[in-house]
């Protein structure tokens, strides 16, 4: 099959490309970074260098494709995250309609049905194609974004910085804390990007008669259980994940000079996770869990952590 993978060589798209090439598919990887071209070709795929903000570019890449994996990278500079996501989704829609691609797998979000500003799925209404929306849990790789904070770099005992993963770090003496407006004993489904890649690879070669939603997870844990697994792997078994209020989260983002619209969306997303509703949706769909557990990732995380 002729398949198009967007997302450059990111956490999902790189292992996805590896799987698809190994299966013998003709794979084109879309990247905005010309420096990634050689690495993409070395994997046995073709490189299409350009921006998903360019409808003409997308249309040219999608010509003749049997299926497309469509994802939208987050932009931390966009003041209106929801508006940005909708614009990019409309670009995909226009290019997919023009090229009449019959199979599309869209990277959606864990709380897509709960946060209107983050829901990309409605933007694909009217597309004459078989569409599956992927709703993965919280990425294991989000922990990398808090690595420096867990190490204690910066100002001890003070709020240091914000990361998209929703984790704040407050380090006081020996005690390491992860903080967010979801956390503590909230039960969350965590997921390995490699397990997501395997699920997307399965979906790309299917042709369901109706549009569908696929939840993806690797392990269900409380946030504190997850923090303890990561902490134990790096020699900080006391690592905890403290739940703070939505108001405190917004105030912290303001201090960190995060655009108000972006901050509002992130707080809403994490509040939805704290509500437990996404977990109920996950259980209702009862998907099979992936193979990679957080303890497996924690060993990988620890190797990077101690080398940094």
UniProtKB/TrEMBL annotation:
Organism classification: Bacteria, Pseudomonadati, Bacteroidota, Sphingobacteriia, Sphingobacteriales
Organism of provenance: Mucilaginibacter litoreus
Domain NAD(P)-binding: 7-113
Protein name: NAD(P)H-binding protein
Pfam (any one): NAD_binding_10
